[in-house]
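[STRUCTURE TOKENS]
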Amino acid sequence: MRFETFVAARYLRGKRKTRFISLITFISVAGVSVGVTALIVVMSVMTGFDNALRETIIGNRAHLTVMNRAGLPMEDPEAVIADMEALSSDVLGAGPIMQMEALIKRGEYTTGAFVLGVDPEREASVTDLPRNLTREGGRMFGEGTMPGEKEIVLGFRLAHRLAARVGSEVAVMTDKPTVTPFGMRPGNQVFLTVSGISQAKMSDFDNLYAFVDIDTARMLSGRKEVDAVHIRLSDAFLADKVARLVHEKLPYRAETWYESQEAFFEALKQEKVAMFIILVFIVLVAAFNITSTLIMIVMEKQRDIGILRTLGASGWSILNIFILEGLLIGLSGTIIGLGLGVTLSYYINPVAEVVAWFLGVDLFNSTIYYFDGIPVAIVFADLVWITVSAVILTLVSTLYPAWSATRLNPVDALRYE
């Protein structure tokens, strides 16, 4: 063991008459531990939410949406689908899509919505819409439909606002012009039967979207062309690569699932960074405790410092002793915090249940957050950043006390001894 390390470790143990300094040292270690634990738990939960929301978005939105570059509707979506399948072997499913704004009315309830027209036979290979149907006897439109009957699938919260359930009849009003005996009249109203309720676990889809088949969408909009073709890939993270191929080799433009929700993902990223910065202040407070602890140790060890300097210890050695002492405090707290943080993150749901039972409140309402439990993802890179941040703050906190120890004059330190 090096001389500086031995002396630093010996100073940490303290003597009976310096129990107060030992208590302050313990508080400093505990402060670093609490800060590191809080950082790990919060970052793991936020990353878990980020991943869970990303999976939900990827499931409910197409990985890639292909449109005409001029923004015009597509007259031949089948040709576009054939071009995409020939372009990349990563295309697993594709289907046409139409979107329009509409008013949906049932009895005294009226609300606005986006009506999406999709191909029900192909939709299962593109999005999770068929799997999102609630178990209330609902089904996709077109499955067992009576001749001439038109059906619609409503988002969960949209259906709640309309007080609609499977089998209810709703009126869908669009801006398609209607021919009457008195001439053209703006607006078109069609009565559709609710065939299913979709619970996508996304507020946008559950609040604002309704789904019909392509033929019904054409009847509602009054046009035969579709708006775009949406694509599912073998891996959602290949969307950027395939989009570049579309721009380079085909006369279309492509929008990825990330671009369609870019503002949302950027907000999550900025929130995570802001939370990291805020929680680092807990570690910063612990670092100030380390500074005050080392200052008191330097004041208490003036005689020892004078003896060491008289025996030939250099100022660099004295500097290293107190830097190592502070680092030992910081590393101890960081290691303890890592262990506690990872353990608490792993068992966050049982801990939350115990706290909820003790306080008598529901800390994580699954009907609000759409998750059965608190999603957690422990990322090694986050652990590295947290550890490095704690160690750097600890190192910085030791510099002034260590520097002040090197400035002690051994003659003054030993004058009254």
About this structure: The mean pLDDT is 80. The chain has two domains: 3-56+264-414, 63-256.
